[in-house]
Amino acid sequence: MILQVSVDLSLLAQRCPVMVRARGLAGWVGAGRQVTAKGVLRRADVAGAGKAIGIDVPARVRSAADVEELHHPWVVAQEAGLLVLDADRAVAGPGTDHDPLRAWLAGLDAVLRGESHDRGRRGAVVACRTVLTALAADPPPARDRIEGAVRHLLDDADLGEASAMFQAFRGSVMPVDAALAVLTEFGAVVDGPRLTPLGRWAGEQLRARSAESVTPDLPAEALLTRLAEVGEDEGWALVSRWRGNRPVVTVAGELLRAAATATPVQRVAAVDAVVSLGDQALPAWQAVGDVPELAAHARTVLAAYRLRLPPDDAQRHWLATEYALVALARDGAEAAYHEVYDYYHEADEHSGQAALQPSGHPDEAVLREAVAGFVASGRRPRVFQVKIVLSRVRPPVWRRLLVPASVTLGDLHEIMRVVLGWGDDHLHAFTADGARYADPYHELDDCGDEDAVRLSRVLPREGAALTYVYDFGDWWEHTITLEKIVDADAAAVYPTCLTGRGDAPVEDWNPEYPEEPTPFDRDDINRHLAALAGTASSN
Fold this sequence. Notes:
By secondary structure, the protein is α+β, with helices and mostly antiparallel strands. It contains 22 helices and 13 strands. The strands form three sheets. An eight-stranded mixed sheet has the order 10-9-8-11-12-6-7-13. Strand 4 and strand 5 form a beta hairpin. The relative contact order is 0.06.
């Protein structure tokens, strides 16, 4: 009976409108169609794509992403491997080897992430989960009572999740209609509205992943799986719920014991969670000091409290391997290569092969194979040509740079200080695709860790852009646009300034003590950038 239900759900998933349209789009794209910097179809192709999948599109559109009946299957097709995007083109792909039901759920997750505009990208998930829960009542509410049922459920929900829901979809005050529209596309809801078997299954899956499902009796291993999938703030909320009234040292010990047999991504998430518990967790760290998978992490933490000496070379190599494996899992082989290179900085400039030292890490062979494969592919590390424009300044002020794709946003902040002469006396933040990043030391609200995000992740293709604001009082806002992607030159030093225009403004300008702006001097900028690169190399 269970098998039959599973088969029926898979058939429903394959036949729902959004999956049918996703396959239609892949067939229409075929050998290739151009895409914009944001990875969507050009406006000129919107009408043709709409006709191919049988939907009406407006005569005038600002972006293909604004046509939801087109954009949602476009996202689903990418998630299912039916479409593959590179720098400026989309081509039909072979599809993933996921079973249809899991592919359907992955597509729903991807669409809901895109329709969530809160930092945790979960607002649309909360909206759809709550609507599905309301419709699962016996009897289900009438159409004109669904919003009231949703509000009632939100009264008992986590405040952060309830707030996130109001930042979902197109800015609706209460996005019930938008949630119903998406769920109908995915075949989870039909006219009435009422749940389909697929909708009941989806509700169960979404509720199982909600914050409310985390209770103190959840196995630590299950919590680690969740922590590895969410951001720092959401992770802290999950750990707090999981802790309940138990002592910190107890929950820290359980997390660390589970981390010993976890994947590197899960283990690092566990380490971050236990670190956030503070000094009350120190006995738990001391208890795992001899556990091979945790010894280096434990020694790092205990050294910060001056309870142990810092990690020795072997342990530092182990940690370098661990974090490179995390980069591999999250961002691929090139990111792993850069993690290795950044740590050892002993690369053979001709082959690009980083000198990965033996570490004793149980997954070291996986990392070696990935890095060797990247090198053997003949690909060189990528360099981004970016243009930095200081907004709302006349005469114009801009700089054009070559920057390694591997730099973090934290590195980019240091580069920005050099090329525009900013000090470091004020706060700053980056914004990319609706998400904000800043220096974690300042603990700015709704900001991720700028040191944990590489430039290649937030500028995925030519034409993509992000903003950088320095000094929240004077609000010096910059637009950073990826103009071109090139291969690294082994003889070159990066970052480097190619050209620019305009004098750098005076920071904290005081009319009583007027100062002259700093003239653009490419050679002087490059001398400082070379020194910055040298400092990074020695760390």
